[in-house]
């Protein structure tokens, strides 16, 4: 409490004063001369002299008695020194040890992603990151809605987009692609048959992501997800719609129909035999995956370290195979 009281005294009596003036006071008192103080601070003697004069003018008191041969601290100068020296040292130490300036990442990292990417890619990335950097805490926000990074105080986002992302206020880096492929459960296919061509899909139930109402065949012979305004030949209409890819996957495993899933959500299920890829020659849709963060000139080390770790992880295990 004493240090806080001293700092409060300095603030109240001197306003928004330059702390360099206070450093000069401490250096001159402790070294006993302007020349020695200048050597300690790494500044010219004239700079120290001007700093003391400015401080005395601000306070309206003489802090040092000067003669041609020596400098001695006045009673007011000693009192001020005793009040501010410890606080100045504490403040300088705190500023020097700000977590974001340290080489080793520390502090709290806030990241966001869609639910599907978050429960797969982001979960593993966070586990690796916290193991590698024990001084960092991580807060994860999963949402299928786009989070405003600046307003919500989020450091970094992992986002999916069909188009190239353009935002002058953000730094955007493409880190992968996602292919949507068609899947169904073995039980469903045994009950309803296995489609071989797009024309066969009209006879099947389809589990779709909300906002996507049709699966269509374009003039170029490509399968595409489409909304209400369709421009190609419809080969399937949604029987079940949802707003979460994890729900869609579980519904497909339970036999609700066939549907389009990103391969990173289906690969393990295919390996376990709970899902089967339908019409493997056809890729329904490709999206891009981006790492996004605010465009600060000096990014905190925790952000750059996590960004690099995610890039490393996605190089080791791409989202599309």
Description of the molecule:
This protein is an alpha/beta fold and 321 residues long. The protein contains eleven helices and 14 strands. It folds into two domains: 2-97, Winged helix-like DNA-binding domain superfamily/Winged helix DNA-binding domain (Arc Repressor Mutant, subunit A); 107-321, D-Maltodextrin-Binding Protein, domain 2. The strands form three sheets. Strands 3, 4, 5, 6, 7, 11, 12, 13 and 14 form a nine-stranded mixed sheet that branches. It has a three-stranded antiparallel sheet with strand order 9-8-10, with no helix packed on it. Helix 2 crosses helix 4. It is rod-shaped and about 105 Å long.
Set down the secondary structure blueprint.
Elements: H1 2-14, H2 19-31, H3 34-41, H4 45-59, E1 64-66, E2 71-73, H5 75-96, E3 107-113, H6 115-132, E4 136-142, H7 149-152, E5 156-161, E6 170-184, H8 186-192, E7 206-209, E8 214-217, E9 223-226, E10 233-237, E11 240-242, H9 245-253, E12 258-262, H10 263-272, E13 276-277, E14 285-294, H11 301-316
Parallel strand pairs: 3-4, 3-5, 7-11, 7-12
Antiparallel strand pairs: 1-2, 5-14, 6-12, 6-13, 6-14, 8-9, 8-10
Short note summarizing the structure:
The protein has 321 residues and is an alpha/beta fold.
In percent, how helical is the residue content? 40-55%
Q: Radius of gyration, rounded? A: 32 Å
- What characterizes the major β-sheet? 9 strands, mixed
pLDDT < 50 runs, ≥5 residues:
1-14
How many structural units, i.e. domains?
2
CATH classification, class level of the largest domain: Alpha Beta
β-strand percent reads: 15-25%
CATH topology of the largest domain: D-Maltodextrin-Binding Protein, domain 2
Question: Could you say which overall geometry the principal axes of the C-alpha atoms support?
Answer: rod-shaped
Q: How many helical stretches? A: 11
Amino-to-carboxy terminus distance: 61 Å
Helix vs. strand class: alpha/beta
- Helix/strand order: HHHHEEHEHEHEEHEEEEEHEHEEH
Q: Count the E strands.
A: 14
Looking at the overall shape, the CATH architecture of the largest domain is 3-Layer(aba) Sandwich
Mean pLDDT: 84
């Amino acid at each position: 409490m004493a240090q806080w009281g001293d700092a409060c005294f300095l603030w109240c009596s001197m306003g928004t004063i330059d702390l360099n003036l206070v450093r000069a006071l401490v250096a001159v008192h402790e070294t006993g001369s302007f020349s020695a103080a200048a050597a300690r601070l790494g500044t010219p003697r004239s700079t120290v002299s001007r700093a003391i004069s400015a401080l005395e003018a601000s306070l309206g008191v003489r802090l040092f008695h000067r003669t041609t041969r020596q400098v001695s601290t006045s009673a007011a100068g000693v009192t001020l020194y005793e009040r501010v020296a410890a606080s100045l040292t504490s403040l300088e130490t705190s500023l020097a040890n700000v977590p974001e300036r340290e080489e080793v990442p520390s502090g709290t990292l806030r990241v966001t992603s869609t639910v599907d990417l978050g429960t797969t890619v982001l979960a593993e990335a966070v586990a690796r990151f916290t193991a590698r950097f024990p001084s960092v805490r991580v807060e994860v926000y999963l949402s299928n809605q786009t989070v405003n990074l600046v307003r919500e105080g989020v450091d970094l986002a992992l986002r999916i987009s069909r188009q190239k992302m353009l935002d002058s206020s953000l730094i955007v880096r493409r880190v992968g692609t996602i292919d949507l492929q068609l899947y169904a459960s073995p039980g469903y296919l045994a009950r309803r048959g296995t489609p071989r061509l797009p024309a066969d899909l009209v006879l099947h139930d389809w589990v779709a992501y909300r906002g996507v109402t049709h699966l269509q065949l374009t003039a170029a012979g490509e399968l595409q997800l489409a909304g209400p305004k369709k421009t190609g030949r419809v080969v399937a209409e949604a029987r079940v719609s949802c707003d979460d890819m994890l729900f869609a996957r579980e519904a497909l495993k339970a036999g609700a129909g066939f549907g389009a899933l990103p391969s990173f959500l289906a690969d393990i299920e295919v390996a376990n035999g709970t899902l089967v890829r339908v019409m493997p020659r056809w890729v329904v849709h490709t999206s891009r995956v981006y790492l996004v963060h605010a465009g600060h000139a000096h990014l905190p080390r925790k952000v750059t370290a996590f960004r690099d770790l995610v890039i490393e992880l996605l190089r080791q295990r791409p989202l599309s195979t």
